[in-house]
């Protein structure tokens, strides 16, 4: 990996901006939709499989699939960013799709719950590689002016697909059974995503070097990975605030993924209704990011992040308080809106303050902490649910989410000049 930045990239025929790169950008939007769909296909039905087919009772045991997914994805995110800086984005994307190939087959035919856990290790590694690189590639292409919009569109594609796949597999499971039929979709997702990535996606690392050559101090030395890790995790007030907010955001998502099906089922919701409720939250999250990402380009990042964490906390609290389909749907909508306010804005804020040449490495560290939230949220929620009840676990996560917004309000600096 080069130790300094070279201005020679500015002489290339590469261009920055969404308009100049709309074909590749649009293609990456489609690819990321298939990445998101891989997660969505198990989101509404895996807890039911755990209870009905494998006779698991303890919530902590059932939520173990989210723990292994979160740890695998978090660790892979860390290395995906560094590898993308060192070797290029496309090769990392293709490897991610190859690792995803066994996942739907393992989910279809797993003879024990341990095989489901293995499938989620593969899924986590794959998601860490594929989603990380599609994020990094869109930041590369967009340039500094429309970074928030680019992240909004990226996360829209991924999480709208999560919701659509959750709805589709919930419907298939309700009509044809929990296995194997819902996971046939996953085979198609892998095949299409892999073919697009191999045949049509182009490398974008040159765009990051072009942007670096156009920024002040283009010859700045590249920090060590250790320095990048500690700056992003602890030392820099803005980057560390962003990292903790990302972790808490996925902490509550891990809880929602694992416990909400039990909350809804305990209130008498049918499998089809649970699938619908499981789809509402990521679908609203996905659609709203089309607007919130661009809005952060106009009004700044910090206010949206703080307000978004508090809206999430409100949505979770409503689900803890009420027990009807309408109220659950209301809570899911608020949770989706709040997450949409936060998710693309956090990524855009990192792009604002980090040198483009080591930006992928910084994004990798941020995404390490963010997706570790899946594991922490599932583990914490499962243990509290087993000890004190499911609703107590939901309330605890609502309180943590509210506190995270307070930390951002007091510690983060605004990164976008408006």
TrEMBL record:
It is a multi-pass membrane protein. Residues 25-416 form the Major facilitator superfamily (MFS) profile domain. One of its GO terms (cellular component) is plasma membrane. Keywords: Cell membrane, Membrane, Transmembrane, Transmembrane helix, Transport. It holds the Pfam family MFS_1. One of its GO terms (molecular function) is transmembrane transporter activity. It comes from the Bacteria. InterPro entries: MFS (IPR011701), MFS_dom (IPR020846), MFS_trans_sf (IPR036259), MFS_Transporters (IPR050171), Sugar_transporter_CS (IPR005829). The chain crosses the membrane at residues 25-50, 56-79, 91-109, 115-136, 156-177, 183-201, 303-321, 327-350, 394-412. SUPFAM superfamilies: MFS general substrate transporter. It is found in: Cell membrane. This is Predicted arabinose efflux permease, MFS family. It comes from Rugamonas rubra.
């Amino acid at each position: 990996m080069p130790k300094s930045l070279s201005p020679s990239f500015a002489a290339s025929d590469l261009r920055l901006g969404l308009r100049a790169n709309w074909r590749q950008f649009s293609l990456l939007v489609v690819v990321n939709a298939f990445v998101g769909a891989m997660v969505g296909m198990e989101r509404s039905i895996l807890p039911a499989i755990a209870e009905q087919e494998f006779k698991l009772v303890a919530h902590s045991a059932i939520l173990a699939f989210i723990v292994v997914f979160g740890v695998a994805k978090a660790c892979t995110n860390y290395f995906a960013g560094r590898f993308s800086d060192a070797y290029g984005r496309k090769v990392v994307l293709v490897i991610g799709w190859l690792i995803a190939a066994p996942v739907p087959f393992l989910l279809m035919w797993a003879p024990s719950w341990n095989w489901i856990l293995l499938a989620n290790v593969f899924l986590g590694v794959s998601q860490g590689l594929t989603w990380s690189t599609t994020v990094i590639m869109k930041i590369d292409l967009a340039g500094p002016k429309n970074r928030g919009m680019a992240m909004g569109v990226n996360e829209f594609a991924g999480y709208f697909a999560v919701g659509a796949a959750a709805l589709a597999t919930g419907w298939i499971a309700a009509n044809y059974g929990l296995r194997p039929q819902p996971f046939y979709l996953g085979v198609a997702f892998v095949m299409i995503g892999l073919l697009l990535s191999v045949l049509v996606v182009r490398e974008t690392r040159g765009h990051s070097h072009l942007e670096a050559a156009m920024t002040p101090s283009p010859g700045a030395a590249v920090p060590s990975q250790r320095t990048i890790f500690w700056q992003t995790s602890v030392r820099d007030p803005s980057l560390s605030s962003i990292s903790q907010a990302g972790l808490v955001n996925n902490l509550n998502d891990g809880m929602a993924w694992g416990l909400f099906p039990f909350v809804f089922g305990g209130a008498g919701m049918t499998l089809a209704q649970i699938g619908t409720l499981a789809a509402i939250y990521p679908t609203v999250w996905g659609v709203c990011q089309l607007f919130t990402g661009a809005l952060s380009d106009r009004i700044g990042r910090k206010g949206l992040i703080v307000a978004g964490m508090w809206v999430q906390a409100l949505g979770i609290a409503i689900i803890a308080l009420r027990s009807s389909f309408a109220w659950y749907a209301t809570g899911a909508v608020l949770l989706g809106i709040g997450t949409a306010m936060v998710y693309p804005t956090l990524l855009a804020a990192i792009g604002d303050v980090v040198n483009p040449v080591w930006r992928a490495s910084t994004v990798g560290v941020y995404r390490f902490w963010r997706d570790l939230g899946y594991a922490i949220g599932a583990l914490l929620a499962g243990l509290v649910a087993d000890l004190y009840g499911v609703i107590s676990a939901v309330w605890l996560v609502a309180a943590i989410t509210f506190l995270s917004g307070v930390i951002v309000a007091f510690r983060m600096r605004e990164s976008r000049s408006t």
